[in-house]
Amino acid sequence: MDTIGKLNAAIYRCMQGIINFKLRDIPIGSGQHDFFYVISKSEGLTQKELGQHLYVGKSTTTKAVQNLILNGYIRKEKDEKDKRCDRLYLTEEGKRILPRIHATFSEAVELTTKNLSPQETELALDLLKRILQNVSYEKIKLSAESNENM
């Protein structure tokens, strides 16, 4: 039986497989392309903002950022107003691979809507946003409950 969770997980795995294959010669780990892409679209954001944008935890974000720094694709700079805060930027090497990453993500997005009308695409986006809102709210609630019990 198909469920939203099962289909969502399958779509995610397929998309990651396609992206990984198309970018196989760029040494960025699976799933870390998403982090690179978001940083490239919003240079200067913090790790916290990056994690919130991707709905992932602090440790996952930290590992991805460390890997991207280690591979020479991004760098951290101290925020001028708040020295406790680091901002993320692409390096020259990151800028060099940027067109490939953006082209691959654009192809992936086009693939997801290939046989959908503009109205169907809009409806799908609306439904997925609502589903994300539901599960995100529950995740926040559970996290708050967990912190209260510590």
Describe the model.
With 150 residues, the protein is mainly alpha-helical. The chain has a single domain, classed as Winged helix-like DNA-binding domain superfamily/Winged helix DNA-binding domain (Arc Repressor Mutant, subunit A, Orthogonal Bundle). It contains six helices and two strands; from the N terminus they run H-H-H-H-E-E-H-H. It has helices spanning 4-22, 32-41, 47-54, 58-70, 92-112, 118-148, and strands at 74-78, 86-90. A two-stranded antiparallel ribbon has the order 1-2. Helix 2 (32-41) crosses helix 5 (92-112) and helix 3 (47-54) crosses helix 4 (58-70). The mean pLDDT is 91.
Reconstruct the topology from this structure.
Elements: H1 4-22, H2 32-41, H3 47-54, H4 58-70, E1 74-78, E2 86-90, H5 92-112, H6 118-148
Antiparallel strand pairs: 1-2
Helix pairs in contact: 2-5, 3-4
Provide the descriptors you would attach to this structure in a database record:
two-stranded antiparallel sheet, about 70% helix, mainly alpha, about 150 residues, single chain, Arc Repressor Mutant, subunit A
